[in-house]
Amino acid sequence: MSAHGPNYTERQLFRYLERINYPLSKPPSLPPATFDNLxxxxxxxxxxxxxxxxxxHYSSRRIIDLESEVLFDKFVNHRRAGxxxxxxxxxxxxxxSLGYDVYTVGGRxxxxxxxxxxxxxxxxxxxxxxDGTEYLVDVGYGSNCLTAPLPIFDGKMIEDIQYGVVxxxxxxxxxxxxxxxxxxxxxxxxxxxxxxxxxxxxxYVFEKDFEFYAPDYEVYIAVDCVLLxxx
Length: 231
Known about the structure:
The chain is 30% helix and 21% strand. It is of the alpha+beta class. It has an 8-stranded antiparallel β-sheet with strand order 4-3-2-1-8-7-6-5.
């Protein structure tokens, strides 16, 4: 597999856009890589392909396959969806095929942990660069997922607040992981609050400049499948 990832054909892209009910022009043409189209793609994908992990729990094999053709068959031909790595893998392949500048990173989910507790990397997220600004794109975090691209960095610190499923709000900023042995090291943090009066809670942390590749995610999947087999 190429380090830059696979691409879908034009025919596959049209079938995917039909799957998510994306409005096409007449005569049909693929949407250019713009911010407005990116927002529409995220919204349509989230509406049509909700988070689900049925394959991990109910498949006799309990195996997740992140190959682009396997995911296309699952999401488009069988009109299924998937869990975080499937969601963001298929969506990043679509974005790359449409001309967006994307790569994926690993996320360390800290939601629900006590201060100082950590988990291993277990999430996939997308970093997208458009017109000089880097965005976090994520369609695979379940009920508390981003609903639009969230800017990370454009030469100065950004803490834009974005609404998720109203009244939820999201933001990104740099912060230290409590209990980290490397003092003073700050990492990008995606946070959520349930409404404008609630406290901010960390969902996951990520190093935006450290690209992950297919073999990295295969390790996560192998661990998840083994743990489920032992249940």
